[in-house]
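[Meeting: bench + compute handoff]

Bench side (C.D.) handed over the final construct sequence. Compute side (W.E.) agreed to return the predicted structure before the next meeting so the bench team could plan truncations. Sequence as handed over:
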Amino acid sequence: MEAEHKRTATDLIKSVAILQVKVLLGAARDLALGPTAIAAALVDLVLMKQQQPQFYRSVLRFGEKSDRWIDVWSGGRHPEEDPHENVDALIARVEDVVRDPERGARQARVLRRWADRQVKRAARRAAAEVAARKAALPPAQPPSPPQPPRQ
């Protein structure tokens, strides 16, 4: 009975800690996306005559995706439900690394390669999107020469 109680208490403490990490991740995301959304809306306003607003919506879509990924309240799901590939899976992997040093070292290498691939993939996507948006913009008009002063 005592061991079962201890395990339950440990699970509860772990669940609370994970919730707090997720809340902090969500807050950090919100702090970053708030000003980014305003800047994107301003850029869309400036470019509204040349193109449809797209930057603000992109920020909103990113916020929605990150909200699903962080999934703050997933701790309330039944334990037998299939886990989503989100922060919970990442935390579980980190926990495995910490608990088993041998397996953890191998898993850490795998995670690092995965993270490197994701960063490179995101950079390629961003570069392609920037190039596509630059190509879609009309060519810049050269400034007109200054007019001589009238007398």
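W.E. noted at the follow-up: Residues 1-76 form one domain. C.D. will use this when planning the next construct.
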